[in-house]
Design goal:
With 167 residues, the protein is an alpha/beta fold. The protein has four helices and six strands; from the N terminus they run αβαβββαββα. β1, α2 and β2 form a beta-alpha-beta unit.
Length: 167
């Protein structure tokens, strides 16, 4: 076989292998996502985790608090359903819409390395029961996603801006 032809075949094989291997390596090495431990009670941690997935919040939820980059702690959900008597009274004298009750929760995210509070959020929804839990958790996920997007933009801006020194 001609040595030039052998070299071309070898170069083609290496090129094909590179084309196939590069996407496989990229798929096995995902971007680093900050890890979050969710400290919430009565299953609300599961609601928040599901909301993170649904809203594509760029975090990885882990179950080991000691290995987490952040700890997201939530207060107890304050659920205030509207009673039947007050629903009737409101319908007779005022207005019937928006009588489901209300639910609210506060959360804060603590950076594990220095215990600083880096983000906090309070949400109140005009719902009660399971729908309120889902709505509250999705609002948390949406706003936390925005927090990380803003933090990424700020970090990118700081990288582009050269540091100035004073003499």
């Amino acid at each position: 076989m001609n040595p030039l032809r052998s070299a071309l075949i070898l170069a083609g094989a290496v090129l094909c292998l590179g084309c196939v291997a590069t996407p496989l390596l990229a798929a096995t090495q995902p971007d680093h996502k900050p890890t979050v431990f969710i400290d919430a009670d009565k299953g609300f941690d599961t609601d928040i985790t599901a909301a993170f997935e649904k809203k594509k919040t760029p975090v990885a939820v882990i179950e080991n608090k000691d290995k987490a980059d952040y700890v997201l702690s939530a207060s107890e959900i304050q659920d205030h359903p509207e009673s039947t008597g007050s629903k009737i009274a409101r319908c007779l004298f005022i207005y019937c819409a928006g009588m489901e009750g209300t639910a609210s929760v506060s959360v804060k995210m603590i950076k594990s390395s220095d215990q600083s509070v880096v983000w906090a959020y309070q949400v109140r929804k005009g719902l009660s029961g399971p729908q309120a839990r889902q709505s509250l958790s999705e609002a948390i996920a949406k706003h936390l996603k925005q927090y990380f997007a803003d933090a990424d933009k700020q970090a990118a801006t700081e990288k582009k801006t050269p540091a100035t020194t004073s003499n």
